[in-house]
Amino acid sequence: MNSTIQTILQRKSVRVYEHRSITDEIKTEILRAAMRAPTSGNMMLYSIIEVNDRAKKNMLAKTCDNQPFIARAPLVLLFLADYQRWHDYFIACGVEQMIQNVAMRTPAEGDLMLACCDALIAAQTAVIAAESLGIGSCYIGDIMENCETHREMFNLPRYTFPVCLLCFGYPSQGQIKRKQTPRFDERYIISQDTYHQLNSEELMEMFFKPELVYNTKITRENLEDIGRQYYKRKFNSDFAIEMNRSVRAWLQSWSGSK
Known about the structure:
Layout (H helix, E strand, L loop, with lengths): L2 H8 L13 H11 L11 E5 L3 H10 L5 H4 L2 E8 L1 H9 L2 H5 L9 H24 L3 E5 L6 H8 L5 E10 L3 H5 L22 H8 L4 E2 L2 E2 L5 H13 L2 H18 L3
Antiparallel strand pairs: 1-2, 2-4, 3-4, 5-6
Helix pairs in contact: 2-7
């Protein structure tokens, strides 16, 4: 196994860090790697905000579903889908005057999805680069919540969207020893040429693993209970409901309907 594959396969989310800073040199390497990530048409439809301000990090620890480790992370990066830069560039280049009587097109839903892809690809590239340097990371999807607060905190203009927050730090010994979270078997995820929709039997088999899920031992007798727990604790949780409300607000702002 080559070192790149090994780095990818050994990665796990890290939420407890050593009291050890990340040097500017290492940070530069991580960011340089992120900026070499694949990007649509070489447009780099993303922006990265390094969050250094202590008050902002403390606030993020609260607004991102009350996760104190965010405030303690040595390096916190916010990855934005960003079409604002190109929209402003088009205006600066006189596109409105060029097309004259036709209304200038503004970024729409497809442009947002493309920019989200760019931002996530850059974010994951940063994660792998950090992992190769012995630095752990953790994605914070909760940054999509609390739209109004986060927009004001970072002065986010209309055509931006906070795709993810990333925390970086050297993992504690406990985190190094912690087992990886298991994944579903490949046969339930990978198909050939067409989508395979799993039937009830396949779904139950997919979840039948000996590992603990939410502190509940999986047995064939309680597989349906596991699904109910996921629904309650993840899909229909308070934070999931807030995330959807907030993302709806982001989309309304983007489309100009609000």
